[in-house]
Structures are given as C-alpha cells and as structure tokens.
Amino acid sequence: MFILGIETTCDETGIALIEAKEDKVKILKNELATQYKVHQQYGGVVPILAAREHKKNLPLLLKNIEKNFDLRKIEFLSFSVGPGLLPALVSGKEFVQDLAKKLNKKIIPVDHLLAHFYSVLIRNKIGWQKIKEINFPSLVLIVSGGHTSLYLFKNWQEKRKLGETLDDAAGEVLDKCARYLGLPYPGGPEIEKLAKKSKNYFPLPKPMLQRGYHFSFSGLKTAFIDLVDEIKKYKKIDEEIPNLCFSLQKTIFEILIYKLKKAKENFKVQDIAISGGVAANQTLRKMVKKNFPNNKIYFPERKLSTDNGLNIAFGGYLLFKNGTLPLSYQEIDVYPRSI
Ligand code: KG4
Ligand code: ZN
C-alpha cells in the first residue's frame, strides 16, 4: 500500500510517499523544505512565520510528488497531529483535510513524538528494506528543540510517560546558549562542531538529578549565561567558545544518561531508543553506547533525526499495521502539548 505523510509541527515542512507491505517498507519520495533561514534572525522559531511558510511550501512539495505518482493510489494520508506549535499544526491539518476531501481518502493522525521513536527502525535508503525489530518494554527518550521526554513503551502504542522537562527542552537550551555566544541558529549542530576543538571543561550544575525522571534545564541555562558574563569580564569570549560548547553539551548529555540509567535499572529494560533533533549529535551517540554496553541502542539515521514527512508516513503505517483505523477529514484535530 502507498501512504503519504505530512509534517508541519515546527519549522520543517515535509511530505513523503512510501510503499509498505507487511514488515517491509520502500521510500519513494521524501520532500523537505527547511525554514531555518526565516527564523535565524530571531534566534528561534516564530510560530506564525512557521505557519505561513508551511502554507507556502506544502503545495510545492506535493507538486514534486504528483509529477510521477497518481495520488489516488494511496491507501490513506497521515499527518503530524502534535505536539508542536499550534499555528504550524493547524496549517498541516487544513492542508491534509483539503487533500483528503479532494482524493476521498481517510487520515491517520500520527503523534510527532511517536514518529520520532518509530524512525529508529528504518533507514533512509532506496529500495525495499525490512523494518527493524525492537524488544518491548523499551525505553524511549525524545530529545529535541521542543521536547525532552522519557517514555516506557509496553508495546507499539501503549506508552507510559516517565518524565519530561519542566521548563526548557535540551535542544532549546543548546539553541538559546548558542545564541548568547553569537552562534547561528540552530545552535545544536554549531555547538557540536565547536566542542570538538575544546581542551578544557567548565563544571556546570545538573539540576533535578534526584527528582524522578523529570528534567529541568533552565537553571543550567542561567548558570551558563552567568559563566559567559563572568569570562567576558577578564578576557575575549572567542577563545573560550569551544570550551563553553564542550562543557554545555557534556553536562546536558550526562543528565540525559543519568536518567536513562535509572529508568533502565528500575524497569529492567533491554532496548533503548533515542530520537529527536539532538539525537543527531555524534558525541551523545558515543556517550550512550559507552554507558550502555549491554543494551541494544537505537538511534535514527542522522537525516531522520530531525523533523520530516517520512517519519510521519512510516508512523502512519505502523499504527495502521497495529490496528489503528483511519478517520474521515471531519474527525481530525491537533494538540499542541504532549500526551
Ligand atoms: O526534532 P527537531 O528537528 O525539531 C523539534 O521537534 O524540535 O529538533 C531540532 C533541535 C534543535 O534544538 C537543534 O539545535 C537540535 O535539534 N539539533 C542538535 C543537532 N542537530 C539538531 N543538537 C545537538 N547536536 C546536533 N547535531
Ligand atoms: Zn521533532
């Protein structure tokens, strides 16, 4: 069966077309329009501008898919239903509703965080591929610009949220601290690059380590900003930027690993999946592998770590395969907050 997936939760507009059969999937198109240039000057995503860009980009991406594919052949549409920025989600919803009406097709809403999790099971390659297997219960950490959430999955859909950030998300802190250092948006990849040139580590606080599985990063962000201001008093900040990037990144990743370890031991979990934009970070990947030598660790391919339509199309397929029924276009809505 053919499935079209639409992603508009944040600042990436994505539409992908896949073909799926039992435990196999084939990627036919994965169209993406990145908006970072629009938001760069503001140092973060501006929701209303994101919605405007999605509205502009969605028809263009669809045109590329329609060029050599008859959309009437699809089984159903899937779209990213939330969590995300409300105006951005609404632009995706309206687009998918119009399309469903026009094609007389139904829709499977796909939770954006669930799609980040499922994305660890596929590869971004041409031709048919077998969907990877994962053992439940599994621990799933979604770490992005909007979320830092830890889940225990009993099976494909039944999840228990163990904890989440009570303030900033890990990626958000990387973005905001990068901005304070005068680095371009998005900050995560810039910090990763600069951290490689570091020689020294500045100790930074690790808030909320003892409080269950919740996270809090805003105190760390404030401590980082104070440290930058302190350094600026006696030397040029440029010399210390690699060390600051290294220290911030290392502190955030150690917090994530601490909570993962605690959950792994408590719930006797074998398989661990880490996804979301920050999971693209190679240092994080290395640190996790080193800390969990006896567990099977799943990361998405770098290109699938950040938002895209393929994750949503594939998410729609796994939900369908596990019994989710598609809805009519009048039945769908969006949710900005995670559930
Ligand atoms: O999942 P995503 O594309 O969008 C959200 O749902 O937020 O994640 C974007 C976030 C941004 O905060 C960005 O700085 C971060 O992921 N990010 C990274 C890297 N690549 C993207 N953080 C650390 N290292 C990276 N290589
Ligand atoms: Zn995301």
Topology, pairings included?
Blueprint: E1 2-7, E2 12-21, E3 24-34, H1 36-40, H2 47-66, E4 74-82, H3 86-103, E5 107-111, H4 112-118, E6 128-130, E7 138-143, E8 148-153, E9 159-164, H5 170-180, H6 187-195, H7 218-234, H8 241-267, E10 271-275, H9 282-291, E11 296-298, H10 302-305, H11 309-321
Parallel strand pairs: 1-4, 4-5, 7-10, 10-11
Antiparallel strand pairs: 1-2, 2-3, 3-6, 7-8, 8-9
Helix pairs in contact: 2-3, 4-11, 5-6, 5-7, 6-8, 8-9
The structure holds 5'-O-[(R)-(carboxyoxy)(hydroxy)phosphoryl]adenosine and zinc ion.
Residues 112, 116, 144, 276, 307 line the site of zinc ion.
Structure description:
By secondary structure, the chain is α/β, with parallel strands linked by helices. Helix content is 42%, strand content 21%. It has eleven helices and eleven strands. The strands form two sheets. The chain has a six-stranded mixed sheet, with helices on both faces. Strand 7 and strand 8 form a beta hairpin. Helix 5 crosses helix 6. It is globular and about 65 Å long. 47% of the residues are buried. The mean pLDDT is 95. The structure holds 5'-O-[(R)-(carboxyoxy)(hydroxy)phosphoryl]adenosine (KG4) and zinc ion. Zinc ion binds next to helix 4.
